Each structure stands twice: as structure tokens, then as C-alpha cells.
Amino acid sequence: MKNIMLSAIAMAFVLVSCNQKNNEASTTNSEKTESASQLYACPMHPEVTGKKGEKCSKCGMELTEPVPTTESKTTDTIAKTEANVDSATVTPKDYVNDIITCYINLKNNLVKDDSKGAADNGKLLLASLNRFDTKTLNAEQKKEYLDIADDAKENAEHIGDNAGKLEHQREHFVLLSKDINDLIKIFGSHRQLYQDYCPMANDGKGAIWISEVKDIKNPYQGSKMLTCGSIKKTY
Q1: DSSP of 138-164, one letter per residue?
Q2: pLDDT one-digit tens code per residue, 111-120
Q3: Which of 77, 47, 83 is nearest to 65 (CA)?
Q4: 3-class SS at 212?
Q5: Can you give the residue ranges of every domain in the chain?
């Protein structure tokens, strides 16, 4: 009788232990599944989502903002989120930062002699220029922006429409870089940037470009003379 009772107690202990382990395993698997399914959004384009660290299809920025799951959105949370969206203001510098990001992606394509990539990013840059909400500007800023943007849009469009014509794209990149430089002078930038100069670009007349890195990587010469040039200014 005593042996039967001891066996029953031991069996009960085993069952409790197994249930506890199963619960722990279930919790761990649930956490892993939740982590794997977590979506992240672009800081500038919250409608673009994907895995953390992936690139935004519109501006190339990393997806870093967690997207709340449907289950976690209580009525109170939704109300707070909507209030924050309504009260959030996008500044002119935010729009310029988006434009600069698209420009830099385009510049890096030219550095790699990638005409197709340059065309794709030329189209993204054009879309970014069109997204700029001029209602955020005062009258003087609006006039200055429109003067610059009209020219920048034309050059971005030429680059976007001429995949396979690398030298033609670089000719328009000379003018586009001046436009981007003018935008930075007026509105500033969220990040440190460098104004670089190539004395051989633009048929030997010289031309500037804007870079996010200190090392010289020449978009006008590409693989022919990658390190040709010098830093003229730091923003």
C-alpha cells in the first residue's frame, strides 16, 4: 500500500513537471513567433513596413519603428496613437532629409557605375521632391524652394528616364548636386554631410557633389578614378 502511494505521488510530480515544461516551451515558442512576425516601419514613410533593418522602398532608410499588432491595440491605445499623429508636425528639414537620402542613394549608384540603379533612385528622388508640402514654408522659403525644386525635378527626371546612359545621367547629376547643395544651405540637414569637389568633372570645369561619408568616392568618375577629388565643406 505504501509503495502504491509513493508511486502515485511520484507520478503526480512527473506530470506537474511535464506540464510546467510544456507551458514554458509554449511561452518561448509564442515569444519567438511574435518576434519573427513583428513588423517595422520607415521613420519617414510609416506606410512602408517589413523586417527590422530592411530598406524603405521609397527613401532607402532602414525600417526601425515597431508597428503595433492588432491584438495590442486597445481602444485607448488607438485613441492615443491617433492623437499623436494629429499633433505630430513634419518640418521642412524632414522633407529635405528625405530628398537628401534619395539623392545619396542615387550618388552611390553612380559611384558604382550602376546606371539602372541610378535611374530607379532618380525616380524615387523625383517622387520625394513632389511630396514636399510647401504649406510648411513661409512665403520667402516657398519661392526659394520652388525655384530650386523645378530644376531638381527636371534633372532627376532625366536621370530616371535614361537607364543605360551613364554619362548622360552624370551630366544631369552635376546640376542636381547644385540644387541639393542649395536646399541644404536654406533648410539644413539632420545629418553631417560633406561637399566634395572633382576638378575633372563637367568637361574639366569641375563640379561638386554631396556625400554622407568622409572618404572620397567620386560619382562622376566611378571605377575609372574613384578617389579623385577633395572635401570643400562640411555641413
Answers
A1: -HHHHHHHHHHHHHHHHHHHHHHT-TT
A2: 999 999 999 9
A3: 47
A4: coil
A5: 37-88, 92-234
